Amino acid sequence: MKKRDRSWCAAAIAIAALIALSLSSCSASSKPSSEADKPPGDEIITLRYASYLLDTAQASKVYYDAIEEFEATHPTIKIEPDFIQNANYMAGIKIRLLGGVQLDVFDTWSPSLFEEFRKLNSNVYLDLTGSDFLNGFVPHVLQPVTVNGKVYGVPEVMHSDGLLYNKRIFAELGLRIPQTWTDFIAVCETLKEAGIVPVATDSYWSTAQFFWGSMMSNNGADEAWTRKLENGEIPIRNGIFVDAITKHKEIINRGFVPSNWSSMKHEQSKDLFGKGKAAMIITGTWDIPSILERDHNLEIGFMMVPGEKKTVPNINIGTYRVINAKTKHPEEAKAFVAFMSSKVTQEKLAEGAQAVPSISGSTLGNPIAKEIASFVTRSDAVLYWPHTVSTESLQVKIQEGVNHYLAGQSLEKTLEEIQTAIDNANKKEP
């Protein structure tokens, strides 16, 4: 979902080089509608909407359909979609915010990315507190975008992360969904003996977090624990963290993943799973639509990564939609956000993206979405780790360190590397 942003300094240097390109690329698509397109007597207002969701790999058709429906019901408002690939999203939004490019509405994919943009300017977001469209959301989903009692973002559909599994393979081998880590290892052994790759994974930098991050939640790494980690009260070599990443390394060492996983791309691991050559895949439920494109008859189920003593459901809010505080059209931007976040629209988006609406009382027709809902709506469900890390930059550094470990770096060097990153992030600016 996300791309590494190695440092604020690097981002600043990149901005100087990329801003001209960004302005150039935006100019063609951000021109206002011609006079011939305007309804008689009405002025067309153009809102620029930047998102990583407007891509075929992310079931984008449902988003373009929603935009088209909004424009049909709001004839004086035109939406200019601004698609930025996942890999470039964080840097792309920073460039637009700092470079003065028109940007009215944009998406963030986690509380840490929400905070990352606030680091640029604490007043970057339009205050939405008291807006009618904030009513009706399931408990706690507004908390990550609430600062000092004020709400600055609106949640969209909910996903979860962990393991998708092939129901046919499990049925043919008589396998049950593992409830404990011991059960999981036994299932993987059976699959390996049957000549099937137990778990598809790959070298894409963000993939690994959906396995060991889930284990972190199982181990008790909630938001309060994360704050203690960041302020130095808890060291990274704490058992909660070490247990999670060593369990991930265990499935690699036991040969439960593709032998060439370290050189595979994420699309290749989806191919393995989508074509029935792997029984499970490390990913999030947002990948279901693109996997089904490989085989529309594939029967996909979702399971959480089982823990040693308990298994905690993970909530992954697919998107928080925010409004740039510098927009020249705040009321029109609010109308667009309200529409995109409404119960009716969320139900349509959820159907297309195999997700769960964050609006209470929503109807779910898709069986996979119902299965996901059975997890994310549980009372013990939590925001998964590492999305509780306060900024995207630190989150990425932690993930990079774990990736080095999974690829062969020693545990000791890995822990030292990550602890240094946490200590540096914790240093007070002079």
UniProtKB/TrEMBL annotation:
Transmembrane segments: none annotated. InterPro entries: Bact_solute-bd_prot1 (IPR050490), SBP (IPR006059). Keywords: Signal. Residues 1-27 form the signal peptide. It comes from the Bacteria. The keyword Signal applies. This is Extracellular solute-binding protein. It comes from Paenibacillus terricola.
